[in-house]
Structure formats: C-alpha cells, structure tokens
Amino acid sequence: MALEVNDGNFEDMVIKSGKPVIVDFWAEWCGPCRMITPIMEEIANEYTDKVLVTKCDVDSNPGVAAKYGIRNIPTVLFFKDGKIADKQVGAVPKVNFINKLTPLF
Fold first, then answer.
1. What is the DSSP letter of 19?
2. Catalytic residue at 33?
3. For the chain, how many helices (H) and strands (E)?
4. Residue 57 sits in which domain range?
5. pLDDT in tens, 78-95
6. Is 30 in the active site?
7. Which among 98, 67, 47, 88 has a CA at the least distance from the CA of 5?
8. Buried b / exposed e along 69-104 (16+ C-beta atoms within 10 A)
9. Is the pTM of this model over 0.85?
10. 87 in helix, strand or coil?
C-alpha cells in the first residue's frame, strides 16, 4: 500500500529512507493521477521489501511540490539515497515505472 507523505514527514520518510522511494505527486481532481493509482498500489505490493511507494497530494502539500518543481501531475519521482534518481511525468503503463525503478535496486 502506498503511504501518504506530506510537508511535515517528507524528509524522514523519503530523504532518509534506507531503500529506494517512489513519490507519486497527485491531486484529487486529476484524472490521469487516478489512472496510475492502481499501478502504484501494484508496485507497492509487488516490491514491498525493495522499495517504499508514497503519494503526495500537491494541493495539501505545496512546500514539497514547490521544492521539487512539480508543475504537472501526475509526476512520479524516484529517489535513491535521498536524491532524485529518475522522473516520470504523466500517466504511462506500469512497465515504464518498472523500467525506471529496477536500476535503483
């Protein structure tokens, strides 16, 4: 299950994580965001021991969204060792996310 991250816990949950982290920047009103939600849940379930899958609502957490320059949603950032390792903007098939995630293990 994808975990919620916000302006208050982003540093501890994402930057200080001991494993790769996917952050799905989304909003309730965003249709394409809703399209990738099941994909993020599948990845969270399939890779539970290898990666932390998180979601960040850009409307409720403008600080994190601004810090990482999120202008379009959905935007998925892939973090490794506290740094951005890759990025995916827009709703794409699951294989696209897996191809960006796999090199981080």
1. S
2. yes
3. 4, 5
4. 3-104
5. 999 999 999 999 999 999
6. yes
7. 67
8. ebeebbbbbbbbeeeeebebeebbeeeebeebbeeb
9. yes
10. strand
Q: Name the active-site residue from 21, 22, 30, 40.
A: 30
Domain count, the chain: 1
CATH number of the domain encompassing residue 38: 3.40.30.10
Q: How far apart are CA 53 and CA 76, in angstroms?
A: 10
Each residue's pLDDT tens digit, 1-30: 899 999 999 999 999 999 999 999 999 999
Which candidate in 21, 33, 53, 91 is catalytic?
33
Helix ranges (H only) for 12-93 are: 31-46, 62-67
Which segments within the chain are labelled E, that is strand?
3-4, 21-26, 52-57, 75-80, 83-89
